[in-house]
Amino acid sequence: MSYALLSLMALAACHPACARAWALVGYLDGRGDLSADAAEHAAGMLRLPGPGQAHVAVSGPRGLVWSRENGRVTRRPNAALQSSRPSEQALSEFLEWVGPRTQGCNRVICLLGHGVPAAAGRGAGPPRLLHGDGDPGLTPDQLAECLGRHLGSEQDATTVVVLETCFGASADALYALRKVADFMLVAPGEIPSPGLSWPETAEAVMALASGQRTTTLSDSLTPGGEQRWSRPWPVVWASPRSFETVADALERFCSEAARSPEAYAASLLRLRASTSATPERREMVELARLARAVGNQQAGTLLFDRGEALAAAVEQTVISYAVLGPAGPDVSAGRPGITVYLPGALGCGYADVGSWSSLARRTGYDRFVEFYVQYCGRLVPGLGPTA
């Protein structure tokens, strides 16, 4: 949820580029069941302390753009935000307007909206942000192109992107935004209400950025042991700038994995079976766990080494993480991290991964997924492609 904005501005103050002024840019999807959340978050963004400017767009029936500059708050209606125009167009128009106003500033960019993971079967397609009824939303590649076109990348300026959408911690998202964002705050799974606690989140991430954190991130975000959520959920603070290293490691991993599929097929199937049974979560697995499951000792020394190298590269991208909420059986062991598409028993549609994932095309992961469905599908009825 957009409560994460304060923490990001706190972290930004500790960055070497903190001599620049900061601008907060928020695009909040206020349609449907998010209308109340969007209004609340917009009000919170405009109350942020300090001299920095804030520009917040709220889409929906009362589409408005709020701005705070020089201590003064103004608002203006926006026809594009009020219409049924797709999010990609409305976001593009808002960023075109806000880009010149924040030129020369460090930026915190927040997107609040529904998110869906990559899917196979009849609904085959990429992960999407700001997704809604009748609105396809944006793929990670589309979001990166939109941000780069309107906001650019200035030398010595810091850009923080908060994806306040479910399933935002995908490898595709970090790879797509690697040239746009210095830091990202994302969630691998669903984001439950009411979101993060304030001002504890700001204090926790400021301490994390300055290396002065004395408690776990989870404890910092739940002061006094307060249980704000009915179920556990992970949050990840990551550096997409380093994801080129992950892509290189994934390419070497996929190349070696193609040589001996029979050596790790059973391990891959066990990993797939260990994930949640819900259709959405079944489509995504943590990339580091995938690397170690495939690159096991029985698969050979070289594949083992490349699996370990890939897992290490992914884990180095994750600066910090926490599993919030009550402990439960669905909290996986180890650190929550970046997820990657791996279809469950959903039949055809897998081949589309190469058409929508620039990461899969760059690394050969699309061929790895194709092998998984075809080879492992012969071992497990119902997994392979259907007519």
Q: Extract low-pLDDT stretches.
A: 1-18, 328-333, 382-387
Lateral arrangement of strands in the main beta sheet: 4-3-2-1-5-8-9-10-12
Count structural domains. Answer: 2
Total beta strands: 13
What is the rounded distance between the termini?
Answer: 41 Å
Number of H- or I-type helical stretches? 16
Question: What is the structural class?
Answer: alpha/beta
* CATH class type of the largest domain: Alpha Beta
Quick overview of this protein structure:
The chain is α/β, with parallel strands linked by helices and 387 residues long. The chain has helices at 4-13, 35-46, 79-82, 87-101, 140-151, 171-176, 200-210, 217-221, 243-257, 265-274, 279-282, 287-294, 301-317, 353-356, 358-363, 365-379, and strands at 22-29, 53-59, 64-69, 72-77, 106-112, 115-116, 128-129, 159-164, 183-186, 233-238, 284-286, 318-324, 339-341. It has 16 helices and 13 strands.
